[in-house]
Design a protein that fits this description.
This protein is low in regular secondary structure. It is 13% helix and 11% strand. It is built from one helix and three strands. Strand 2 (55-57) and strand 3 form a beta hairpin. The termini are close together.
């Protein structure tokens, strides 16, 4: 099982948002990220926000990974 995509830039998200059990990796859900990367990363890092995501894909194609896939 792959935890980290080799070509993605690793930029860890907050550790308190990690689910304690392994994920089954059965599919993918895509959401739209609007605005600047810095604003999105600030939202990811907010300790009061429960939401998190594995990847941020920028307009120039740069892919950031915030959490392992498992």
């Amino acid at each position: 099982m792959i935890d980290w995509i080799p070509w993605a830039i690793r930029r860890d998200g907050p550790a308190n948002k990690v689910y304690p059990n392994p994920n089954l990796q059965q599919g993918i859900v895509l959401h739209s990220m609007e605005g600047w990367l810095a604003g999105s990363l600030a939202e990811l890092d907010k300790p009061t926000r429960q939401a998190s995501w594995h990847f941020s894909n920028c307009l120039d194609g740069t892919l950031y990974q915030h959490y392992p896939l498992t």
